[in-house]
Amino acid sequence: GQNIDQPTEMTATEGAIVQINCTYQTSGFNGLFWYQQHAGEAPTFLSYNVLDGLEEKGRFSSFLSRSKGYSYLLLKELQMKDSASYLCAPMDSNYQLIWGAGTKLIIKP
Amino acid sequence: GAVVSQHPSRVICKSGTSVKIECRSLDFQATTMFWYRQFPKQSLMLMATSNEGSKATYEQGVEKDKFLINHASLTLSTLTVTSAHPEDSSFYICSARDVSKDYEQYFGPGTRLTVT
After folding, report:
1. Residues B103, B1: contact at Cβ < 8 Å?
2. How far is the CA of B9 from the CAs of A42, B5, B14, B87, in angstroms?
3. Do the bridges between strand B45-51 and strand B32-38 make them parallel or antiparallel, or are there none, so unpaired?
4. How many other C-beta atoms can be found within 10 angstroms of the C-beta atom of residue A95?
5. What is the structure's pLDDT at B1?
6. Which residue of B has its CA nearest to A50?
7. What are the chain B neighbours of A41 within 8 Å (beta carbons)?
């Protein structure tokens, strides 16, 4: 079957760094997306990885290891507005995104 | 970046009535659009995949006669919730795929449906 494993909830301090891990199993693989979703809002795109390695985009970076079925999202210089759910979504062989429940990130001052 | 609009953003309807939700890709053509439903504190649940000019593909457990999907053009897909009931109250989100950009899905802002 297909599944996503992410921590349910994480807490971090404003200004700090946090890493959200994701392991996945899919039928085929066509890349992995990370989305941010604030409560009551639709998801917004953060990053896309299709090759192994680290992709850096401002305060956010995403890493992928296809052989390990593993990805992480790294958030630096945390701000209060980063409090949200972070969704790891791999794309299967049919180019369908597979969704888990996401990780709720709580930022404390 | 690519923009997807959704209308209405909020709708309250009476039980037994039908509600239509529109999803538009504003600055790109979307041959494929997706309809999701999300209940509070739960993950996104894919309801159906909508392909322009053909019938939608529904996920298991989603009633195609209750959730009518029409994808008449490359920029518009509609979801009609027919004979709505209180249990259909949810957050409905559409997304559109831009095949020229690594199959990334762009999400609309969502529609909050409340059935009384």
Report:
1. no
2. 11, 9, 17, 19
3. antiparallel
4. 15
5. 67
6. B102
7. 109-110
